[in-house]
Design goal:
Dna Ligase, domain 1; D-amino Acid Aminotransferase, Chain A, domain 1; alpha+beta; nine-stranded antiparallel beta sheet; Rossmann fold; about 30% helix; 3 domains; homodimer; four-stranded parallel beta sheet
């Protein structure tokens, strides 16, 4: 595996796999630092193509294009976790890839991820591997209440998951999810949801942002609020959880840990995202170094930036048709639009960030 | 002259004439808003070309390229004031140009600008039109102390100006400046320098940022500090001056007014920059809406953003070889590098912004 011996110098090129809004905002952050961003997407006309002249379009397993990417870039990262493992391995032999492919592999698979988290002594929902309808029924029997059956791979924004309130339900859900390898998770009763976005540098340095309280609607993030209802002790614990995970993965870059805040105050790890995260978009305005810049700094082997928050902040997603109200949204706060042409239902079109003087 | 009947919609294209760091940061701001940025430069490989695929390269008076620009863009703006007047007139017939060409013409000429400012009842240094060495000597006689002879056009960062401590000096300076039309200004004894960066929207709305205290070295901005030594009354007066000027010019976009703070506390207008300004770079981190986004909002006919400052801030330029220390600069604050390949003496290579909790 290729590693980075020294920092990518100003004028160097960072390859970003994926051309959605996360890749777009990473590219914008790279530009601030005087680094060039190259976007590799399997689709034409993606949001990130508007912000850099350096573009590759090919399937993600196209070896000629992966080779070209490796030749042109000083380091490569990605905006989404579902890159084929073989492509990642091929690439990692040729150019430093950050975060490392093993960390990606762990977080690509819900069962591997939950097992990893549990092995670190962190709390998770009860979970069981499910490879057949029969196993789904059996596993349900071990839960104390409802469950959620999720495919081990390729889920996001509530896709690839179904609720189960009985053993039969669980069996039916397994079939409905196409018979793909699954994980059955026990339903967690929580007070509210939170997340922690943090970075680990190539030198092992660690920097966490204040954890937002998050509200989801229809499985899609609606709003992140900082500070939220987490107590100072929970804030510290959330950051410590992120650090434990990042260290164990020998992670380099920004990662997000989604948390349930249980009624007894405990923090339960729901999911790890090996990338910048929607619940960290507020850092663009509220911190001197945004999660996007922080990620690029880590990937490039630069010193991490300062994650101090200097304002209270609410970030709200703009979903589907809501974008039609762009003019009043622009009046109400810092508006970010992602350059997507079509406003499909459930599609994240942008977000708006509103600041207030820091209260605590 | 073409005007903008309705706001440029998301997905629309803003043309930016000039490809330096100001154009680059404008383009980055346009991208945040979901607008495309097209850069028109007379040189290849300029900083702004790294942040957008939409690029035109031609002399600034090339009519075919100006036509193409007008055809592709919903609105056009510029990052520097020395665009040929005929090119601007040609363009303004074909596409909305903001700020308007008349405002540009006034601020392109130091004598026209000072006359305009004085006519508004604002304070300036004493100044005289100078078209011959003889006039230079005569004008010097009307000053009470030293003077500075400046070419009426094309000066920046101290270029095109010479100090004069005697009438003979003034005559010699006129010849040394190539016999170009000049203005002789009386030297102002000031406590410190300041500036005010403000925006006027297409609807006449006005928004000013807190005025920084500025320090220049060798005629180049070294540092902007907010809050500086201006009193609350001076802060208000600085913003009022910017508003008076912006209204009188029917200005749309961001402008900067450079000020001398006299020993008696009076604010003396030194210069108007009809564009985003180096002394406003701190707004990127310290305000939800940066000067760059504010300018793009105004140019696009969008509502102006909130100029509230939510941190104390010092912005320091990185000049010439200083950029070699990029790694320690990246450690010390929010680093911006402009993607310039060669670090010539006096060349602005980037800047670094350092935040502290807001004190007042």
């Amino acid at each position: 595996m290729k590693t980075l011996d020294k920092p990518v110098p100003p004028g160097g090129t960072i390859g970003i796999i994926g051309g959605g809004q996360l890749g777009r905002m990473m590219a914008l952050a790279a530009s601030r630092l005087g680094l060039n961003a190259l976007i590799y997407s399997d689709l034409p006309d993606v949001p990130a193509f508007h912000v850099t002249p350096l573009q590759l379009i090919a399937p993600y397993d196209d070896r000629a294009t992966l080779s070209a990417l490796a030749n042109v870039c000083h380091a490569v990262t990605f905006e989404f976790e579902n890159i084929p493992a073989e492509a990642m391995a091929f690439l990692a032999e040729r150019v430093p890839v950050r975060p490392n492919p093993a960390a990606l592999a762990t977080t690509q698979d819900r069962f591997a991820e939950k097992s990893f988290v549990a092995a670190l002594g962190l709390k998770t929902a009860p979970f069981f591997e499910v490879s057949s309808a029969e196993q789904a029924r059996e596993a349900f029997g071990k839960l104390t209440g409802e469950g959620i059956l999720k495919t081990r791979r390729l889920g996001y924004d509530g896709k690839g998951q179904m609720r189960a309130v009985s053993a039969d339900d669980a069996g039916v859900a397994f079939a409905a999810l196409g018979g793909a390898p699954c994980i059955l998770e026990g339903f967690v009763e929580f007070s509210f949801e939170a997340s922690v976005v943090a970075a680990r540098g190539a030198d092992g340095c660690f920097a966490a942002y204040d954890p937002p309280e998050n509200v989801h609607e229809h499985h899609i993030l609606r709003r992140s609020t900082v500070p939220g209802r987490l107590t100072p002790a929970q804030v510290d614990e959330a950051k410590a959880i992120a650090r434990t995970i990042a260290d164990a993965l020998e992670y380099v870059g920004v990662l997000a840990v989604e948390l349930f805040v249980a009624k007894d105050g405990g923090l339960i790890v729901n999911e790890i995202a090996p990338r910048v995260h929607n619940s960290g978009h507020w850092t663009i305005e509220a911190c001197a170094c945004s999660q996007f810049e922080q990620h690029i700094r880590a990937v490039a082997g630069w010193p991490l930036g300062n994650p101090t928050r200097h304002a209270d902040v609410v970030m709200e997603n703009i979903i589907g048709d809501e974008v039609r109200a762009w003019e009043s949204l622009a009046r109400s706060g810092a508006l970010h639009l992602y350059g997507k042409k079509e406003a499909k239902p459930g599609r994240k079109m942008g977000h708006v960030t509103r600041l207030a003087p820091r209260s605590r």
